[in-house]
């Protein structure tokens, strides 16, 4: 055999063996995993996505959430953390953080298509996020992550919401957000001193009247003082804009329905021991 041939056969064997070991054998082993139930009366786990949640999975895909969020919970043996009271290094960061009750295994993903394991953890793992927050929390957070954590670097997905003029009464679906979050989508808004003076001159009496009406024990707010003006500003920023409301588009509702179904690693599986 000349050298070229040796090189060719060597390369072929290298690539074939890694393809067999990393692709074909795992595929044979894992391709036909059935859903599981530990008691005959239990519902099978996992279950396929249905209806709105399925549409939401598409919105999740289109919005690129998986570039910052993984959906895989690591075993107890990975991820170190320091336990202060006993002064010891412990393992199992993901489970300690409350991201799931156990590690995820291939069976958790049999109905995921595509599987969005993710590669980066710029934000927390979302495999089990459905058990952590309410629908309303998810909507507000998607509209403006800074509304909960002012340090959040997650982008605002404000285009999934519609700001519209209220005709009749406020919609039940409208997000209960003060104007500080809704005037400039994605940011927190505050008027400058001069702007606030102007607003006070035009609507001061109205704002003061509603402050007094809504505060159970109103204090003697003096608009002539700087402190009085600031206090009224805090109140006014925390109330929704009068004629406007912020409602989720069908895409936002679907996305939140999907996030609420993300409850991987809650149901026990025999192969996931840790
Ligand atoms: C640029 C990276 C980035 C992208 C893209 C991104 N996120 Fe985030 N996400 C973060 C970061 C950072 C946090 C943690 C801070 C916070 O709670 O806002 C977070 C937090 C979250 C949380 C709260 C998780 C928890 O356990 O507290 C949810 C839910 C979430 N993101 C959903 C989404 C969804 C849905 C999308 C796509 C529409 C998305 N994220 C896109 C970075 C990102």
Secondary structure: helix percent: 25-40%
Distance from first to last alpha carbon: 51 Å
CATH class of the domain at 51-162 and 251-261: Mainly Alpha
CATH topology type of the domain at 51-162 and 251-261: Cytochrome Bc1 Complex, Chain D, domain 2
Q: Note the main sheet.
A: 2 strands, antiparallel
Radius of gyration: 27 Å
Unreliably modeled segments: none
Helix-strand makeup class = mainly alpha
- What is the approximate shape? elongated
Number of strands: 4
CATH architecture heading of the domain at 51-162 and 251-261:
Orthogonal Bundle
Q: Which ions and ligands are bound to the chains?
A: heme C
Structure description:
Helix content is about 40%, strand content about 5%. The protein has about 270 residues and is mainly α. Among the domains are: about 50-160 and about 250-260, Cytochrome c-like domain (Cytochrome Bc1 Complex, Chain D, domain 2); about 180-240, no CATH class. Helix 2 crosses helix 8 (about 250-260) and helix 6 (about 195-215) crosses helix 7. The radius of gyration is 27 Å and the shape is elongated. It binds heme C.
Features:
single chain, 274 residues, mainly alpha, Cytochrome Bc1 Complex, Chain D, domain 2, two-stranded antiparallel ribbon, 8 helices, 4 strands, binds heme C
Q: What's the short version?
A:
The longest helix is centred in the N-terminal third of the chain and has 28 residues, at 3-30. The protein has 8 helices and 4 strands; from the N terminus they run ααββααβαααβα.
List the helices and strands and how they pair.
Elements: H1 3-30, H2 51-63, E1 80-83, E2 88-91, H3 93-96, H4 135-143, E3 161-165, H5 179-182, H6 193-214, H7 226-238, E4 244-248, H8 250-261
Antiparallel strand pairs: 1-2, 3-4
Helix pairs in contact: 2-8, 4-8, 6-7
The chain binds heme C.
